[in-house]
């Protein structure tokens, strides 16, 4: 699978461990940074990963930060993206199966390396079920489109 991964300085070590885990499984992983402990603007990384997925360059993404919350917020600003924070395998599975999330976000300050690997594995192994969840995801997508249309008419923001 073609994956995109990114982090801020708080999660660089965890990102590198997850990236190596994914590469060992045979995934193609594009690393959007950061690559060292220097401070970065995490929204830039979250948005870049989300845009790469919307543009079809990658199938799914993994974003990491201290808690993962800010990365989820940033990625979700990109139209068409559903990013979900998960700190356990059940939430990761549900993010995909019930919400059709393309990005999972993790927090380096709240989970360890082995749990992060398990969360990402469960997320990547899960697929959207559709069913009654499809109506809910369609409602979110419809609202997003109506907001974009309103903004295009000068009525947004």
From TrEMBL:
<dbReference type="GO" id="GO:0005975">
    <property type="term" value="P:carbohydrate metabolic process"/>
</dbReference>
<comment type="similarity">
    <text>Belongs to the LacAB/RpiB family.</text>
</comment>
<dbReference type="InterPro" id="IPR051812">
    <property type="entry name" value="SPI_LacAB/RpiB"/>
</dbReference>
<dbReference type="GO" id="GO:0004751">
    <property type="term" value="F:ribose-5-phosphate isomerase activity"/>
</dbReference>
<dbReference type="InterPro" id="IPR003500">
    <property type="entry name" value="RpiB_LacA_LacB"/>
</dbReference>
<dbReference type="Pfam" id="PF02502">
    <property type="entry name" value="LacAB_rpiB"/>
</dbReference>
<dbReference type="InterPro" id="IPR004785">
    <property type="entry name" value="RpiB"/>
</dbReference>
<protein>
    <submittedName>
        <fullName>Ribose 5-phosphate isomerase B</fullName>
        <ecNumber>5.3.1.6</ecNumber>
    </submittedName>
</protein>
<dbReference type="InterPro" id="IPR036569">
    <property type="entry name" value="RpiB_LacA_LacB_sf"/>
</dbReference>
<keyword id="KW-0413">Isomerase</keyword>
């Amino acid at each position: 699978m073609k994956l995109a991964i990114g982090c801020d300085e708080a999660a660089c070590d965890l990102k590198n461990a997850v990236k190596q885990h994914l590469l060992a499984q045979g995934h193609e992983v594009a690393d959007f940074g950061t690559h060292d402990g220097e401070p970065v603007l995490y929204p830039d990384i979250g948005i870049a990963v989300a845009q790469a997925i919307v543009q079809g360059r990658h199938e799914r993404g993994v974003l990491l930060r201290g808690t993962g919350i800010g990365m989820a917020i940033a990625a979700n600003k990109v139209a068409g993206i559903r990013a979900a924070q998960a700190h356990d395998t059940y939430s990761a599975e549900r993010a995909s199966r019930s919400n059709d999330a393309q990005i999972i976000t993790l927090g380096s300050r709240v989970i360890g390396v082995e749990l992060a690997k398990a969360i990402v594995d469960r997320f990547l192994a899960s697929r959207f079920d559709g069913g009654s969840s499809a109506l809910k995801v369609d409602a979110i997508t419809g609202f997003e489109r109506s907001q974009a249309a309103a903004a295009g008419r000068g009525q947004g923001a």
